[in-house]
């Protein structure tokens, strides 16, 4: 049974009036499901616009649909004003505590609490209809650069993300708290982000659309080889992504506070090589240099947001294979035998690492075994297993 909910025509440059929470839903009940979110940041219309295009195309020609595509709007109010957010960043408040609080009653003075409640309800509804659904969160950046995915390094996320012929960025989740993707991953849902390019560049809409077509086929929402749009999408994305390293990890985040007077020097593009000591930005306290060699990611060229820039470096493909092998063998079961490492007395899947005794153990060893760092302070490091066995 084909179920179509009509999508409104794509607005030019973003919506003028408050858009509906659901951009569209099309396809078969009971089949594989892909849920896409566009405009979680209100100054990032490409994903929102791309979803309208895909729904319009599928409505007139539903060929090859085996499952269901759902499109949801992120920060509706901020999209109308083309601001990243109005009161609080909607992609930094997805914590269990905050969600429990807004479910008790939203604070009307924070525009995003309403958005958080509605969007999490909409996601829950779709996920309860299809528990195996995967989520693609569509974003864009203030600086220039090629498209890429962002993912918490679970094996399921890897399979999903690696279907897209672009570079893949690991480790952002250890730097950013309260993202929607982190929340969904924490509940065992396969969910990744896609960054399509600069906010107002028309090619960013084309790339976001391409990511949706490829993701639909990768999830089994579309029959393999049934749609020419998927092959076209692969050509478009691989044209910009091929010359970059395939997988990178975040090694540093430069955090910006409102009073810093942070100004990025002009001309930096994501994936551009940088050296330790190279000046990247200026602030009231003086020049800001890169603390290490690598490549720059997401230099900040807008007023809102507190991520000044990230420094990334390539990840060896062999390391990815070894870590997949270590996780399939469930080597995490023996991690607490390492000196300075013990199991959390109450929480399953959490290790407590004495930084002094286990200094020789690089964070990388835990990454390899499928753990991620949980924000913690003092001499103790908390490592959390990314996915249930
Ligand atoms: Zn964003």
Alpha-carbon Rg, integer: 21 Å
Bound compounds, each kind once, are:
zinc ion
Order of strands in the sheet with most strands: 1-2-4-3-5-8-6-7-9-15-14-11
Topology pattern, helix = H, strand = E: EEEHEHHHEEHEHEHHEEEEEEEHEEHEE
- The CATH architecture of the largest domain can be named as 3-Layer(aba) Sandwich
The percent range for strand residues is 25-35%
Number of helices: 10
Instruction: Give start-end ranges of low-pLDDT stretches.
Output: none
Q: Helix- and strand-based class?
A: alpha+beta
What is the mean pLDDT? 90
Q: State the shape.
A: globular
CATH class of the largest domain: Alpha Beta
CATH superfamily of the largest domain: Zn peptidases
Count of extended strands: 19
Terminal Cα span: 35 Å
**CATH domain topology of the largest domain:** Aminopeptidase
**Share of helix, binned:** 25-40%
Describe the protein.
With 389 residues, the chain is of the alpha+beta class. Helix content is 29%, strand content 25%. A twelve-stranded mixed β-sheet has the order 1-2-4-3-5-8-6-7-9-15-14-11, sandwiched between helices. The protein has a four-stranded antiparallel β-sheet with strand order 16-17-19-18. The protein has a three-stranded antiparallel β-sheet with strand order 10-12-13, with no helix packed on it. α1 crosses α7 and α7 (202-219) crosses α8. The radius of gyration is 21 Å and the shape is globular. Bound molecules: zinc ion (ZN). Zinc ion binds next to loops. Zinc ion (ZN) is lined by residues 41, 44, 139.
């Amino acid at each position: 049974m084909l179920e179509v909910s009509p999508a409104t025509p794509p607005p030019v440059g973003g919506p003028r009036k408050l858009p509906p929470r659901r951009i569209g839903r099309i396809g078969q009940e009971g089949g594989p499901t892909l849920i896409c979110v566009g405009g979680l940041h209100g100054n990032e219309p490409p994903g929102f616009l791309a979803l309208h295009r895909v729904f319009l195309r599928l409505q007139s020609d539903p060929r090859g649909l085996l499952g269901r595509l759902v499109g949801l709007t992120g920060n509706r109010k901020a999209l109308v004003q083309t601001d990243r957010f109005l009161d609080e960043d909607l992609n930094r408040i997805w914590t269990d505590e905050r969600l429990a609080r807004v479910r008790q009653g939203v604070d009307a003075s924070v525009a995003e609490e309403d958005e958080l409640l509605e969007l999490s309800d909409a996601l829950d509804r779709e996920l309860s209809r299809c528990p195996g659904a995967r989520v693609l969160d569509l974003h864009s950046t203030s600086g220039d650069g090629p498209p890429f995915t962002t993912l918490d390094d679970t094996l399921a996320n890897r399979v999903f993300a690696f279907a897209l012929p672009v570079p893949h960025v690991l480790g952002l989740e250890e730097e950013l708290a309260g993202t929607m993707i982190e929340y969904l991953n924490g509940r065992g849902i396969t969910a990744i982000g896609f960054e399509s390019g600069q906010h107002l560049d028309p090619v960013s809409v084309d790339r976001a659309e391409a990511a949706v077509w490829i993701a639909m086929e990768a999830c089994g929402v579309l029959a393999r080889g049934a749609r020419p749009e998927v092959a076209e999408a692969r050509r478009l994305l691989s044209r910009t992504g091929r010359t970059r390293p395939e997988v990178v990890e975040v090694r540093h985040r430069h955090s910006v506070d409102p009073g810093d007077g942070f100004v990025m020097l002009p001309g930096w593009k994501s994936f551009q090589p940088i050296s330790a000591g190279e000046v990247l930005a200026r602030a009231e306290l003086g020049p800001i240099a890169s603390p290490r060699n690598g490549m720059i990611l997401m230099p900040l060229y807008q007023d809102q947001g507190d991520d000044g820039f990230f420094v990334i470096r390539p990840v060896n493909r062999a390391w990815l294979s070894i870590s997949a092998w270590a996780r399939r063998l469930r080597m995490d079961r023996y991690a607490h035998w390492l000196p300075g490492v013990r199991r959390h007395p109450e929480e399953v899947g959490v290790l407590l690492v004495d930084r002094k005794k286990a200094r020789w153990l690089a964070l990388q060893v835990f990454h390899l075994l499928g753990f991620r760092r949980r924000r913690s302070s003092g001499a103790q490091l908390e490592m959390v297993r990314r996915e249930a066995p």
